[in-house]
Write a sequence for this structure.
């Protein structure tokens, strides 16, 4: 997915929706995600030099109408230092918990 942000900007927040993929137990995964530690890393595609390394990220649940399954989003809020160099970057989230690591 492509994401664009202006130089030195702190908004918008980078967010990624956690989706039901049919390959795992969604509810169990969400319960483990809430107690996980989440990090964000961003690397310059042209130079291979990291701009952000294992910065703390977070998760938020959006409440929907009563009885509906909540939607979960992993997100990262940029600082102006994170966006002070123009370029093309690749980002990834790392989720760490008792069961291991998930990128």
């Amino acid at each position: 997915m492509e994401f664009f942000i202006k130089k030195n900007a702190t908004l918008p927040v980078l967010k990624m929706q956690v989706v039901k993929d049919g390959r795992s137990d969604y509810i169990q995964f969400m319960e483990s995600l809430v107690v996980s530690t989440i990090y964000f890393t961003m690397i310059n595609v042209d130079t291979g030099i990291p701009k952000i390394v294992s910065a703390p990220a977070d998760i938020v649940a959006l409440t929907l109408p009563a009885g509906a399954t909540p939607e979960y989003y992993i997100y990262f809020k940029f600082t102006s230092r994170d966006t002070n160099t123009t370029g093309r970057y690749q980002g990834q989230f790392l989720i760490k918990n008792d069961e291991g690591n998930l990128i």
In short: The chain has a mean pLDDT of 87. The longest strand covers residues 50-62. The first helix runs from residue 26 to 34. Strands lie at 14-18, 37-44, 50-62, 71-76, 89-97, 100-102.
